Please model this.
Amino acid sequence: MERFKKLTLKILKWAGISIASLLFLMFIIPILFPGTISAQVKIFANKHLAGKLDYKKTHLTFFRHFPSLTVSVDDFLLKGSRPFENDTLLAAREVSVGINLKNLIFDRQVKIDEIYVTDAYGNVFVNSKGEANYNVYVSKPSSQPKDTTGSGTSVKLDLIKLKNWNITYRDHSAKVLVDAKGLNYTGKGGLSEDIFDLETDLDISKLDLSLNRIYYARQKTLHADLITRINTNALTFVLRKNELRINDLPLKFNGFLSILKDGYNLNINAASEKTTIRDMISVLPPQYLDWAKDTRIEGNSDLFFSLKGRFSEQRNLKPRLQARLLVSDGFISNGKAPVPMKNFNMNLNVDLPDLDTDQLGIHFKTLGFDLGPNNNFRAVVKTKGLEEMQIDAKIKGAVDLYTLNQALGLKNIEVRGLLNTDIKANGIFSLDKKLFPKTNGSLNLKNGWLKTQYYPNPIKNINIAANIINTDGTFRSLGIKLNPFQFDFEGNPVFVNADLQNFEDVLYKVRAKGVLNVGRIYRVFAKKGLDVSGLIMADLSLNGRQSYATTGQYSKLDNKGTLILKNIKATTAYLPKSFYIKEGNFRFENEKMWFQKFFATYGKSDFALNGYLLNTINYFIERQGTLHGKFGLNSNYILIDEFMALKKGDNKDQSIDVEYAKVENPKSSGVVMIPKNLDVALGVNARKVEFKGLGLNHVKGTASVQKGMVYLKNTSFDIIGSRMGIDARYQNESPLTANYDVALKVLDFDVQRAYKEIDMVREMATAAKNVKGIVSIDYKLKGDLDKNMKPIYPSLEGGGIVNLRDVEVKNLKMLSAVGDNIGARAFNDPDMKGVNIETHIKNNLIHVDKFTFKVSILRPTISGTTSFNGLLDLRIRVGILPGGIIGFPVVVTGTHEHPKVKIFSKKGQGILEALYNRKTNKVIRQERRAEKKTKRQQRKEKRAQEQKAKEAEQQVNKDLKEK
Model:
């Protein structure tokens, strides 16, 4: 017993000493090594990170992530790689790295084997060009020998732990958005090995997923338990154990993903088998989940999914997507329902080869449900393709919408009415080939009634009788009758009757009459408080054939009636703001739609139109039709800046190209985008037009919009106190680029005022700073505009004449330098009155033709080249008495600010022109000084260029012979 006591005391003693020693080490090590660790971590970061790294405090402790010794930084901020060096890639409250204690104590080396990131925001971004912001880790070149000493800092990860992350992944090149909130992740394994198994535990509280702006998941919870074998040599991920749960829906999948030089190789299979309809419904958008809680839902479901093949944009390869959804023995009933929905069955197959929608196959082998006797719905639908779609469909049903509403227990909407549908279709649908499936079908709704929680009054007396028939599979035999479509809302009846035959040359009879309060009917379907209002009043009778208007047989048309719009809000895909039609009175008279009284605003701009549109019926019938018209446009004020595509505005439905350009260029305005389906002439009379702070007053002339281009002809306006005449053409190429041609004439304008008020004058004519007086210009230019709608100077081409009618030129540095060198102070104040200066512009160079002026008794003649960036290569002949016949040469090089003068010299220093790529709108090379070369070098280069040209000509001849 005594020996046992001693042994126990000895064990407790050494245990206490060990624990005390361990605690002592845990306190002392962070004190002994902080400099070593902090210095080596900073060195490692500077060597291996391309993005800017910033943080506030650093800590070395065992206690933040016990028992690991960790280096922690607070308020961590990492910027992205180029070209996203100003954007945040990762921001976190705390980032910690675990240090291998053995290497630290015995080798004084920092080996990182764990990473912890807490309370973080991640912003992963790939732009439309495929450039990514996450390429911040710079690895050592493979050509360097391996470090065999084992010194310094290295990463050999065994654990990654992420806690409370919000991360957004946006890939504009693939049109993918993933937004995950409340992400917690633990990854274990030999992450630094060439081949290892990564054990993953992942939880996301809210997950959004969209492809091409279509959301496939909104606010979903996600749990993943995964084991993935990763081969870093081949960049292959093999899915070994992979279990997901999206809300209540379990999903298992297997396969592999290989990352290749030019894309991916995929083979992934997923399944959710032997689940219930309720589990399947759990992945619906959040607004439907409350409904599911209070509804009895029974039945079985199975989901299968596969994605196989290569993905390579360069080689135009894409994988095949296949999916199958089975729902059987479905039963849905709300507690108040007199009859449940029973026998809900669905067998859906989706096939998308090469992710090509033109090959999309959708097959509803079964789709149906019962709502009691004589109240059921059945459909079998099979389609293949999109642009040219093969269709085989049978749809039949008789449904009491009130019974359906009660069975489903819908809370926010009430519907009533008897709906009968019977449609059979078989054949090909193609707009280009004008094919339509052989069809015989009808849809009838009687005594319809619709009410939502958003508005107290219902839409009543909804009656629809629609029939469609096609006998031979072409547009020629297609007929659609709508007799009638009518409803009552707020005491105002609306009635539409339509009979359309032969869609190759549509024979139409349409009658429409009624008053529609747009603001109130919008509130039936949307939440209150949104700024939408307006009134539409129609009394129309349209009778005719499509070809009557296109072939000029206007006497055969019988289109008449009126359409009145008041306070209508309208948007387009390319403008950032909404148009507000304050008042629009339209009268239909055979081929013309007259604008009798039309007033609209767009931001600060206002427009009054009078005139007509042609071909309006054909525009709505014909695919990609064009509207023709002629108008007078009057305006008090037009602000061009508001129309630039990337400006801020209330329009949330801009095109995806504009949306992505706005995200990728947040500080840019973009250019004005022109619709391609207009052919309209405008007589313009605008009191003031403003563009980038420059005011154009009393604008008058002719404008036209044709095929996505705007033309100005015989247009004039007041600018800086002078009247300018202009002919121009403008065309946008994308939301970020545009091109233009302009021919302008301006008489007698003030040079100093132009220099102060017009940016382009300051940039193109820097010498104007030293010029006072009146000049006239006759000039033609063409070029490109950048993403802020500013001229790209290397793109400019053109030329013209500047007449110095009555000017003073004082202290121009270039002329002053010449005067100083030849001893003639009069060059500081030359006489240039009445001088014409002709110049030509190309590739950022301005070529000056010879012009002569007076300097006291001297007659200088100047010619040569200068550039927009200020380089000079000018020749001056200084003529002396009598009449300038005798003279001597002078060369001026250097820059406008620092000119270099050589007297009695004809040898300047040339300027190599800039290089500009018009397809990409990029400046490849700025202009620069030509290298000084000997005559021997010049002869050698000339012979090489001649030989190259000869070989190119021979190759062209060879290619032509082969053809």
Remarks:
- The chain has a mean pLDDT of 84.
- The CA atoms of residues 104 and 728 lie 73 Å apart.
- The two ends are 109 Å apart (CA to CA).
